[in-house]
TrEMBL record:
Residues 27-200 form the Glycosyltransferase subfamily 4-like N-terminal domain. It comes from the Bacteria. It comes from Paramagnetospirillum magneticum (strain ATCC 700264 / AMB-1) (Magnetospirillum magneticum). InterPro entries: Glyco_trans_4-like_N (IPR028098), Glycosyltransferase_grp1 (IPR050194). This is Glycosyltransferase. One of its GO terms (molecular function) is glycosyltransferase activity.
Length: 389
């Protein structure tokens, strides 16, 4: 099978970039001929301003032409799109459709319904623009880049492609990570029969990395240090815990968090994958205190692969991804006292953590392993090839 995979990388590598890299490599391992077409946000000219960048996202002639030429040259059986914002734009979907090739779109975030893609405003979940193609409330509140004109341009992008039928006419299959996300996209007008579930995967670190036969201590946070991740709530909760917390990652809140953190918190910064795996294999608990709706955070698969239970916000997809008292526990986001009590109770209960960790490892093997996820993805491709557009 010949597969063209399209993705626009972020300036700071995140989960979407990792999913693109991992899935591309796994498909090649299974004998697929994979061609990658990549744009890089590092090449964005900031002097153009937020309005110009957002306007380009409505319709990029350059992006459309680049994709069409690649499709004509490579002649894929399937085109799978990850991120197209803002350099490629949804203009590429119609270009692919014109060549008669099935289109798969992974929806990594909620940008089609929310200008900032997070369903988050002032630190709280917000669905005010869900079901409203124009998203005028998001424009008034400057939800994209805190810029009214840029927000208007992104709202125009969503409204234009909703009215033009871009998603209904030019995408054969949408992939999302959870029923929670699927319900939101259906509410926004995407065809329910064309939305399928596909979890993310990470490489198996091996049984020893997931073992609880050796002591595992402390908690870990892995991710970007930014407001939507709820990391400030976790730092405020982590006082007089009697257990250490390791923060792996960087971001705009790093300096402020270091200044506020207690002596029980260690900041490791960004680490290479081998070191991250080592940290996860030594920890007893992963904390995921997100304040935004997570679509399908890659760290869920990473924790499960390492036999690591999760203490997560009871919000968004995490409501189903973290099974209460089986693979972890869920806590009200932003409730610092509840987070402190839940984390301390779990870390004081090593036998319970070990049982949850073993359950998480079983979930990884059954649902999130590379073989299971790649089989699922290839199955979606095969069904599309059997019924071409």
């Amino acid at each position: 099978m010949r597969i063209l995979i399209i993705h626009e990388r972020y300036r700071q590598r995140g989960g979407e970039d990792a999913v693109f890299d991992t899935e591309s490599a796994l498909l090649e391992e299974r004998g697929c001929v994979v061609e990658r077409l990549v744009a890089d946000n590092d090449h964005i000219d900031e002097t153009r301003g937020g309005l110009a960048l957002a306007a380009n996202a409505v319709w990029s002639t350059d992006g459309r032409g680049r994709v069409r030429r690649k499709v004509q040259e490579f002649r894929p059986d399937i085109v799978h799109i990850h991120n197209w914002f803002p350099l490629f734009s949804p203009a590429i979907h119609g270009a692919i459709r014109a060549e008669g090739v099935p289109v798969v779109q992974t929806l990594h975030n909620f940008r089609l319904m929310c200008l900032n893609g997070l369903f988050l405003r002032d630190g709280q979940p917000c669905e005010d623009c869900l079901g409203s193609p124009l998203a005028w409330r998001g424009v008034l509140r400057r939800c994209y880049r805190d810029d009214t004109k840029a927000s208007a341009a992104v709202a125009a992008m969503n409204c234009w492609h909703h009215l033009a039928g871009t998603w209904r006419r030019n995408v054969d299959l949408f992939l999302v990570g959870s029923d929670f996300a699927r319900r939101r996209f259906v509410a926004a007008g995407l065809p329910a029969e064309r939305i399928a579930l596909k979890p993310n995967t990470v490489c198996d670190p091996g049984a020893e990395a997931a073992s609880w036969r050796r002591p595992r201590r402390g908690a870990v946070f892995l991710g970007r240090l930014s407001p939507e991740k709820g990391i400030a709530d976790l730092i405020r909760a982590w006082r007089d815990m009697g257990h250490r917390l390791t923060i792996v990652g960087d971001g705009p809140l790093a300096a402020a968090l270091r200044a506020e953190a207690s002596s029980e918190v260690d900041f490791a910064g960004w680490q290479d994958p081998a070191r991250v795996s080592s940290i996860l294999s030594e920890a007893a608990l992963l904390c995921l205190p997100s304040r935004c709706y997570e679509q399908w955070p890659l760290v869920v698969a990473e924790a499960a692969a390492h036999g690591l239970p999760i203490l997560a916000s009871d919000l968004g997809a995490l409501e189903s991804l973290v099974e209460e008292d089986v693979t972890g526990k869920r806590v009200t986001p932003g409730d610092v006292d509840a987070w402190r009590d839940a984390a301390r109770t779990l870390l004081d209960s090593p036998a319970l953590l070990a049982a949850m960790g073993q359950n998480a490892r079983q979930v990884y093997a059954c649902r999130y392993s590379p073989q299971v996820v790649t089989d699922l993805l290839l199955g979606h491709y095969a069904r599309l090839r059997a019924s071409p557009p």
